[in-house]
Amino acid sequence: MKRPSAEKYIGRDTLSVAEAMQIIDRNVGGIVILVGENGTLTGTLTDGDIRRFLLAGGKLDERSKLAANPHPRYAFTTEDAEKLYHKKNFTAIPIIDEENVVVDVYIGEQKTQEYPALNIPVVINAGGKGTRLDPFTRVLPKPLIPVGDLPIIEHIMNLFSKYGCTEFHVIVNYKKELMKAYFADNDNDYNITWYDEETPLGTGGGLSLLRGKLNRTFFFTNCDTLIQTNYESLLDFHVDSENVITMVCAHKNLTIPYGVIEMGENGVIDGFREKPMLSFLTNTGMYLVEPEVLDQVEDNVPVGFPDVVERVRQLGKNVAVYPISESEWMDMGQLSELEKMRKRLYGE
Q1: Is the distance from CB of 123 to CB of 220 less than 8 angstroms?
Q2: Positions in the chain short of pLDDT 50
């Protein structure tokens, strides 16, 4: 009999990729063990498998089995699973019986994540008014609004610092003196270069202030988004694809709480779906950018960075999406998300 804790790692191989992603998001292992109708092991699916499937042109509504590893490692006993788990960098090991039926899942202890040193500059756009967080932003600039013990911008900087990205370029405007005063008294002594907007320049216009200041690949992020994906894999994708801009986009799933009818001519019903799930990619506001992009941003002209992305794309440059799961993205741009982010970060 499977332990209740193992059930959350198991899903039917008839699930769509989007449905399998939801199971992965709900467990801490980043994996789903796929089984057939009789509970037999048919494959395993990780968030990395899904990313590769989607980048190869796969669709979220296709069967998860198409994206899965059809020949996963498995064990017949807990003892063998434990040895296998520690021998390789596995996430979870399915335990099966003689009939190939999954009887348990060995999770092991939670592994400590290792962070390679990437040493990439980080540009943070922190100049907006944060009107969606009113009335808090009447007192504090959005980047200084606390999430638990730290303001959101410091959470962002600390995550980048784990990857050895400690060179920060921060674009400021609204209540900028409060921002500078906070970090002037900060014990962590962050390496920050400040760029003052004289007038609001949108999410992209402030990059004109960095022209000539950066000559290598850099991260560019909004100050209200925290991305908990593998930054090394993101950088590898950007470099291997020879991208000028890589957009980090998260899959969002929305279930329509009604039966949806597809109607044809003369009212004929062409199809019917009960409470369908819609999946779409949304821009998280984090990017990897080549310095040549700075030449596409005019001085003192307000512009959104998505418009800059489109301008670069129209020039025939490589612009691509790096897809992540919904669980890897935390957005505090709205009041309703602040408490969710705090619970995710502090586990309370």
Answers
A1: yes
A2: 1
